[in-house]
Amino acid sequence: MSTTYAGEIDAEVRQLFDSVMSDWRARRPSPEVAVRPDRELWDTLVELGLTDLSRAEDADWWTSAELLRAAARHAAPLPLAEHDLLAGWLAKGAGLKTGEGMRTVALLDDAGRGSRVPWASSVDRLVVAWRAGGRAWATEIDRSDASIEAGLDLAGQPRDTVTVDGTVRRAGREIDPALLDGVRLRGALVRAIQTTGAIDEIVERTVMHVSERRQFGRPLARFQAVQHLLADAAAESTLARAATDAAIAAATRLDSEWGRSTQLELRVAVARSVVAVSAGRVVRHAHQLHGAIGTTLEHPLQEFTKPVLAWRSEFGTPREWDERVIALATRNGSVWSSLV
Fold it and tell me: Whole-number mean pLDDT of the chain?
């Protein structure tokens, strides 16, 4: 499978991803406030070789992005990005031997503590990394080797506090500090990718809702005010995808430059800035058009809007990315030359 653009991904590959996620969606458990990984779905993806795409010689960023978007479109509760594109990539770059099972990545502070680590309480293994004295280290450990305080994000997904003692850290391998910058930047990109998949689904479900729901004897979609909101949501979804696809294209070209390339960082920063605004507008319009029913646990809309709102502030807040865009775009004095 050679490097492709988003529209050139093999149709059979796209169909496979969507089929697997659709089959899970049809039999998924009833939604709960606290989300946990679906191990049966995970095992299916392992059997298909889809949990370590970044390590496959015939896969690329576009393929990984399509899988992440498919999972987001179906609200599949899995640490796909964390396991493969973050923890897996860091472990490979650090030369670590990885164990079996589901994993995530935890970036620690000077005290060996990582905050809001995604899925830490639910995975089997952790790739932990930290800085000290201008140098960086990493190691992979079993979940039981860390102290984990469970927490949840807005969507009910695990966002836990991880603490690793000095014994574990002393066994770490020194790594290139650029790997840690790369993890943060890759994390920012995968959240943008997941968000675009989710807001595409939000727009589609909202179109279906206003087409089926009737008010004053006619479908809601016939009202001009509703049409304006739908058009704006669709436009924002398209804009977010375009900005994210530009960042994926940059990642494809500069995949060996994570943590070093200013051009790659700028593309990711622009994507995150655009996606934050677009996602907020799409979520607001969708809930306005659904009314109160869209906020209930039983209604599927909140399974997509809550993760979108949670992802907006992970691996950097919207304000931080806005400021980063300005800093990077004006670094050489010419904004336009930076964006070409």
Answer: 92
The kind and range of the H/E element at 24 are helix 11-27
d(CA 170, CA 184): 23
Which contiguous run of DSSP H or E holds residue 243? Answer: helix 224-253
Angle at which helices 262-290 and 318-329 pack, to 10 degrees?
A: 140
- Residue 298's CB is within 10 A of a number of other CB atoms, namely 8
The tokens for 269 are 């920063």
Q: Which of 20-24, 38-42, 46-50, 210-214 has the lowest mean pLDDT?
A: 210-214
- Digit-coded pLDDT (tens) for 287-312: 999 998 888 888 899 999 999 999 99
In this structure, which topology does domain 178-339 adopt according to CATH?
Butyryl-CoA Dehydrogenase, subunit A; domain 3 (1.20.140)
User: Partners of 136 in the beta sheet?
Assistant: 131, 175
Max Cα–Cα distance, the chain, nearest Å:
70
Angstrom distance (rounded) from CA 146 to CA 98? 16
CA distance 202 to 222: 19
d(CA 128, CA 200): 33
Tell me: pLDDT of 9 over 80.
Answer: no
Asked if 118 and 159 count as a contact pair (C-beta separation under 8 A), the reply is: yes
- The DSSP secondary-structure symbol of 143 reads G
Q: What band does 336 get if pLDDT is binned at 50, 70 and 90?
A: low
CATH of domain 83-175: 2.40.110
The answer to whether the Cα torsion of 70, 76, 198, 187 is positive or negative is: negative
